[in-house]
Amino acid sequence: MARPGAACQPPARRVMVAARALLFWALVYSYCGVCACIAGLRLLWSIGRRPGETFRWLMRENPPACLNDPSLGTHCYVRIKDSGLRFHYVAAGERGKPLMLLLHGFPEFWYSWRHQLREFKSEYRVVALDLRGYGETDAPSHKENYKLDFLITDIKDILESLGYNKCVLIGHDWGGMIAWLVAICYPEMVTKLIVVNFPHPSVFTEYILRHPSQLIKSGYYFFFQMPWFPEFMFTVDDFKVLKSLFTSQATGIGKKGCRLTAEDIEAYLYVFSQPGALTGPINHYRNIF
């Protein structure tokens, strides 16, 4: 059924809307191609320099001890009735206390909130979730299952399944975007909203289109639109990209005393080196446009 009034739009207006849509998708796929070419050149450079190391991928069968540290809380699971998905989370603090729900970013999982689990468990029931497709949470195989509507509904359903009708909602990076949208769609469920490293979605959309520098910094959004190749690039040289994200001067934690330990890094490598573990997280981005 056509949108009411669409047929009444002046021809010039319809042409302008179609032209803008064409320009938008041309930009998306052109930049996707540019990012893919850059990644391909880096891959060829790595093969040329160290062919043996390029395709090295260690299978990590046993989790590091830090993932089962009892001081972080209890590992729990909840199955959502409507979607049928089973979600994994780690909970600390007494039941019945106000709920603090923590949503991680990419490429992360519940363990990113280990300090907050310890810090706030005396005042809150703190729950650090593995988002859909991450860690021990179920990962549907089709990218359509990671649309924003599903991700928002996940948080609403999890909140209700935990026996709460409101929470302090904290999100970082991609989890921050989900937190914004949950607060917009279900404001009655959010007593406090804390977002780390993600602006309001509307502001971000306008900013990225007007500032080429931010477009370049967000290039991975476009690169992730490709099938299978982004996942492969993460595995090169035993997940060198993943290690660099957490340890390099450009993107890593620079403050002394706060840097990830070798065991912390191994925890991330353990989770994301499992077969298919990167596809769910990257599928989140494959629906963003």
TrEMBL record:
Key word Transmembrane helix present: yes
TM regions (residue ranges): 21-45
Residue stretches making up the AB hydrolase-1 domain: 98-212
SUPFAM superfamilies: alpha/beta-Hydrolases
MF (Gene Ontology): epoxide hydrolase activity
Keywords from the UniProt entry: Hydrolase, Membrane, Transmembrane, Transmembrane helix
InterPro entries on file: AB_hydrolase_1, AB_hydrolase_fold, Epox_hydrolase-like
Family: Belongs to the AB hydrolase superfamily. Epoxide hydrolase family.
Name of the featured protein: AB hydrolase-1 domain-containing protein
Organism: Callipepla squamata
Taxonomic lineage from the root: Eukaryota, Metazoa, Chordata, Craniata, Vertebrata
